[in-house]
């Protein structure tokens, strides 16, 4: 479709996988099927239950075949998601409730499945962890599969995607996303639903395919064949752009590709300022498949390995052997580079096999992370034993999340040492002693950072929670999300205090929250004196390039000027102005949110 035929439409969503892409829209119609609603006669109840059992068995076989296919071509990481779907098929929460509705309410299986799925999804609504909140979509994927099989419809239909297409969908099942990304024909993904941790986002980042998710009604507003220009970093989608807009997107695409090529050419070069200050740039990861991309972009290690994925949609908690195998694979894949593994950071409402507690009114401040682990010692010990065993396979560092005081750190370290002693007595090999650090992500920990630094081997600042708690806002609440300001003076002072405490105690200090990878904050963090920053793979080359073009002395002067100001708006304006002044030209487009690729409002 000509870019002049239809007025340009601008859509905004969530930048889930970095990169710029231009291509024609391929609309994947995976809309939910219409669910028939029927009342059953008494004699139809038992046959209906058998029909439901048959549909579940068929769904299980289909998922097993898909899992085998993806394992052969993609490896085991995305296949784990399909295994989780198989477990959901047989979860009593689903099966027993569907059978109850068939028997007691006398309704057909399709209607019962849809009602049960809606009920289960509501349980996810108040979960503070974004990754697990996104698993609501898994419930829909499983329910739709069962319903399609009940109705005799085609499931897992192969789709031929045109070369360089922008795939647009309401949402993408993990199998579809993985298979289409693997084909190499997809230029980018745009979905109505999803967040940074949705399956589409995870697959796209692993495959380095630009993606914008959570784009509202994109699948309804974009027509097949429309020319689409998308920015997977800023979450911007232009439909049928003008010639001027398209030219700017093409230039942005050229710059991004140039930056990627430079990243491959300079991946071994250190992130060092012009006056010699060195910062290690590490990667954040969840799945083994993300490691090749991290290494290709110059990651010097893993600064945050999230282990929560192992608890995804299971009826039982992962075994010690499952933990051990996962950590062993990552440590070996990193070839001696440091790997910082964070222990479980979840609330009890999401740990399988445990009694569900009464819904907490404020889960973000409830029994979660290290608090939950110290309240459920055996589950904690299973993970610690596996970590100790895996430590023989690489350069491991261990990190406890949501530490609020010295007593929690002491308790957690005591459990670690007890596990080490028990394994030694049993003759189980464990690695040499490794660094044990903490996530500093609460105001209480920031305030007593000097005391914590006496007992922790390193600090890693988790800015996502630290900023949220410090400013008393819920980032998921749209009414107050605008108040989330990393450059708020109180946040800057808090971070500076944490770094100072670490330096005084002579322990390393890093940052692994979203702030670490945002180019706008690079000079602020350089000035503060961080030893390490950890981010997604696509952010590493940009941060490195900026860092290698300035002196730390300049960065310190800029930070001093910023902290003489008072409001977050003033500080942000000043920092942006200083960054633009230093990096005008090609580097200017690297600054997150600093420039629009469109030539003005539409």
TrEMBL record:
Residues 162-235 form the PEP-utilising enzyme mobile domain. It is found in: Cytoplasm. PROSITE patterns: PEP_ENZYMES_2 (PS00742), PEP_ENZYMES_PHOS_SITE (PS00370). GO terms for biological process: phosphoenolpyruvate-dependent sugar phosphotransferase system. Keywords: Cytoplasm, Kinase, Magnesium, Metal-binding, Phosphotransferase system, Pyruvate, Sugar transport, Transferase, Transport. GO terms for cellular component: cytoplasm. Its main location: cytoplasm. Mg(2+) binds at residues 441, 465. It is an enzyme of class 2 (transferase). Phosphoenolpyruvate binds at residues 306, 342, 464-465, 475. It catalyses: L-histidyl-[protein] + phosphoenolpyruvate = N(pros)-phospho-L-histidyl-[protein] + pyruvate. The active site is at residues 199, 512. The keyword Manganese does not apply. GO terms for molecular function: kinase activity; metal ion binding; phosphoenolpyruvate-protein phosphotransferase activity. Residues 266-550 form the PEP-utilising enzyme C-terminal domain. Residues 12-135 form the Phosphotransferase system enzyme I N-terminal domain. Its cofactor is Mg(2+). Its EC number is 2.7.3.9. It holds the Pfam family PEP-utilizers. PANTHER family: PHOSPHOENOLPYRUVATE-PROTEIN PHOSPHOTRANSFERASE (PTHR46244). General (non sugar-specific) component of the phosphoenolpyruvate-dependent sugar phosphotransferase system (sugar PTS). This major carbohydrate active-transport system catalyzes the phosphorylation of incoming sugar substrates concomitantly with their translocation across the cell membrane. Enzyme I transfers the phosphoryl group from phosphoenolpyruvate (PEP) to the phosphoryl carrier protein (HPr). Belongs to the PEP-utilizing enzyme family. This is Phosphoenolpyruvate-protein phosphotransferase. The gene is ptsP.
């Amino acid at each position: 479709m000509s870019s002049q035929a239809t007025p340009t439409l601008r859509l905004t969503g969530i930048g889930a996988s970095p990169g710029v892409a231009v291509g024609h829209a391929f609309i994947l119609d995976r809309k939910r099927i219409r669910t028939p609603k029927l009342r059953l006669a008494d004699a139809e109840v038992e046959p209906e239950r058998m029909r439901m059992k048959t549909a579940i068995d068929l769904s299980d076989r289909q998922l097993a075949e898909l899992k085998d296919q993806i394992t052969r071509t993609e490896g085991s990481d995305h296949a784990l998601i399909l295994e989780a779907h198989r477990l959901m098929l047989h979860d009593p929460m689903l099966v027993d409730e569907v059978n109850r509705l068939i028997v007691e309410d006398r309704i057909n299986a399709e209607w019962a499945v849809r009602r049960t799925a809606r009920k289960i999804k509501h349980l996810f609504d108040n979960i503070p962890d974004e990754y697990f909140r996104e698993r609501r979509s898994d419930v829909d994927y499983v329910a739709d599969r069962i319903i399609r099989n009940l109705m005799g419809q085609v499931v897992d239909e192969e789709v031929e995607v045109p070369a360089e297409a922008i795939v647009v969908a309401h949402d993408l099942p993990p199998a579809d996303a993985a298979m289409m990304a693997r084909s190499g024909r997809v230029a980018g993904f745009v979905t109505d639903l999803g967040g940074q941790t949705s399956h589409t986002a995870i697959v796209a980042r692993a495959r380095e395919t630009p993606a914008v998710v959570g784009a509202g009604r994109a699948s309804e507003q974009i027509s097949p064949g429309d020319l689409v220009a998308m920015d997977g970093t800023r979450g911007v989608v232009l439909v049928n752009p003008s010639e001027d807009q398209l030219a700017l997107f093409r230039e942005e695409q050229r710059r991004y590709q140039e930056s990627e090529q430079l990243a491959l050419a300079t991946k071994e070069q250190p992130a060092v300022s012009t006056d010699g200050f060195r910062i290690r740039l590490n990667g954040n990861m969840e799945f083994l498949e993300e490691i090749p991309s991290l290494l290709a972009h110059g990651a010097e290690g893993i600064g945050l390995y999230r282990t929560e994925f192992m608890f995804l949609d299971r009826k039982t908690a992962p075994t010690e052997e499952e933990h051990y195998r996962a950590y062993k694979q990552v440590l070996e894949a990193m070839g001696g580079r440091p790997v910082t593994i964070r222990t479980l950071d979840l609330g009890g409402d999401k740990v399988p096999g445990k009694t569900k507690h009464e819904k907490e009114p404020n889960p973000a401040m409830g029994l979660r992370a290290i608090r939950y682990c110290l309240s459920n010692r055996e589950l904690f010990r299973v993970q610690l034993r596996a970590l100790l065993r895996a430590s023989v396979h690489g350069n491991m560092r261990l990190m406890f999340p949501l530490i609020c005081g010295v007593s929690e750190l002491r308790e957690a370290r005591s459990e670690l040492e007890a596990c080490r002693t028990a394994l030694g007595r049993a003759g189980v090999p464990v690695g040499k002693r490794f660094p044990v650090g903490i996530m500093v992500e609460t105001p209480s920990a920031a305030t007593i950072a000097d005391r914590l630094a006496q007992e922790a081997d390193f600090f890693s600042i988790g800015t996502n929670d630290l900023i949220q708690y410090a400013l008393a806002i819920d980032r998921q609440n749209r009414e107050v999300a605008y108040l989330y300001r990393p450059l708020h003076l109180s946040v800057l002072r808090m971070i500076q205090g944490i770094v100072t405490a670490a330096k005084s105690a002579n322990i390393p200090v890093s940052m692994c929250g979203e702030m670490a990878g945002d180019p706008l904050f690079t000079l602020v963090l350089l000035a503060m004196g961080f030893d390490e920053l950890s981010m997604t793979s696509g952010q590493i080359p940009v941060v490195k390039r900026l860092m290698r073009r300035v002196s730390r002395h300049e960065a310190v002067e800029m930070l001093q000027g910023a902290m003489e100001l008072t409001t977050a708006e003033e500080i942000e304006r000043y920092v942006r102005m200083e960054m633009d002044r230093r990096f005008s030209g090609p580097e200017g487009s690297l600054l997150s949110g600093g420039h629009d690729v469109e030539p003005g409002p539409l």
